[in-house]
Amino acid sequence: MDLFDAVTTGEHGTPVTTRAGAGAPLAVRMRPASLDEVAGQSHLLVPGSPLRRLVEPADESARRAAPGSVILWGPPGVGKTTLAYLVATVSGRRFVELSAVTAGVKEVRQVVEDARRRLATGGEETVLFIDEVHRFSKTQQDALLPSVENRWVTLVAATTENPSFSVNSPLLSRSLLLTLKPLTADDVRALVRRAVTDERGLGDAVVLAADAEDQLVRMAGGDARKALTILEAAAGAALADASGADAPVAVDLATVERAVDVAAVRYDRDGDQHYDVVSAFIKSIRGSDVDAALHYLARMVAAGEDPRFIARRLVISAAEDVGMADPSALQTAVAAAQAVQLIGMPEGRIVLAEAVVHLATAPKSNRAYAGINAATEDVRAGRVGVVPAHLRDAHYAGAEKIGHGKGYRYAHDAPHAVVAQQYLPDELVGRRYYTPSDRGYERQVAERLERIREILDS
């Protein structure tokens, strides 16, 4: 079996050998033939690294010392499937691939049992590659544990989601976690140029113009698979237009743009990209960078994010980060949420943008947020005390006899409607939870609160 042979699973999990021949997609044909061709993951491929020992064991003892299970975590198109292929093909092992989208416990157990029989009869070792392992249920992931512990298979699992949240702890603790970095523009550019010249790829049948190459790299967004897919489509269109030409065919900017109308936004509403973009969105608003906040809003809108989710985050941000420095920000955020419900998309993006601009440019204060957190900490720590008798409910029969409401002073009868009396329980008298900032409207709140506290403490 050469580099482009692979064993996948057919009906009922039966291994099926396939070959990535001339008719295979360009991204498959251009899979690296060795670790030296892998782009952008040099931090994992230094001499003596666990991954290099797994792929290129120096001897049998090195192979036994290599990891028995590997989880590859990284964004799409950075080489997770490629590394799994190399683990199997370079070391001469059998490669079996399962997709967590379609496979179940039955298929997993069948592959493992087949691998055990092969080992028992002196056959080759099996590398079991599971793509999108985060989609496996807990039961499905648990079914992998015996095979990992006993090394019946070498498990290579790929995920675009943080394994700390998407992979069961028992499986995670038995695996080597390798984090793949996003590819840089230079990494993608090198892969594109190799695909143009390499005989496995286009074999110099086309010449890619410099501006077309730049656009292709931008559209790929760090995804090697997407870059090669766009290149293949553009080259195919150019070759079709120049049918019968002897010289290499030029692929210009217009051809690349025709091949792909719009580059898909790299954003997964169910994965890490979702949480990373939302996090950057809120932190940009908090940091008052309105341009960055609008950028992340545009990414979410373009990716089809639920506008109600975005609106809810804005309401939270208005209360948490803007707070009393500009109380009208919360009104804007709530109005935006209601408007999005009323008019929907795409017009809803305008409403969301207005709310983003208001929140990002507003003065910021988290003092109310910090105040409720501090009060909550006291309550959880048991510092609650007894409600003072004069503040207790005195509206029911017999309340006066036990002292409820006795001595209570009605605030509206006092000058400025502020009356000095004890409001906190005895053990919390003097506790300060809210300390206003000097920003925006909260500066006025601070001045008024200072006068109020002088009266209350008199």
Notes on the structure:
Helices cover 47% and strands 9% of the residues. It is of the alpha/beta class and 458 residues long. A 7-stranded mixed sheet has the order 2-1-4-5-6-3-7, sandwiched between helices. The protein has a two-stranded parallel sheet with strand order 8-9. 33% of the residues are buried. Residues 1-19 have low confidence and may be disordered. It is elongated. The longest helix is centred in the middle third of the chain and has 18 residues, at 224-241.
Key traits:
alpha/beta, Helicase, Ruva Protein, domain 3, two-stranded parallel ribbon, disordered N terminus, Zinc Finger, Delta Prime, domain 3, Rossmann fold, elongated
CATH C-level category of the largest domain:
Alpha Beta
> Termini, distance in Å?
89 Å
Structurally, the number of domains stands at: 4
Beta-strand share of residues: 5-15%
Task: List how many beta strands DSSP finds.
Answer: 9
Class inferred from helices and paired strands: alpha/beta
Shape: elongated
The major β-sheet equals: 7 strands, mixed
Fraction of helical residues: 40-55%
In the CATH classification, which architecture of the largest domain applies? 3-Layer(aba) Sandwich
Report low-confidence residues grouped into runs of 5 or more. Answer: 1-19
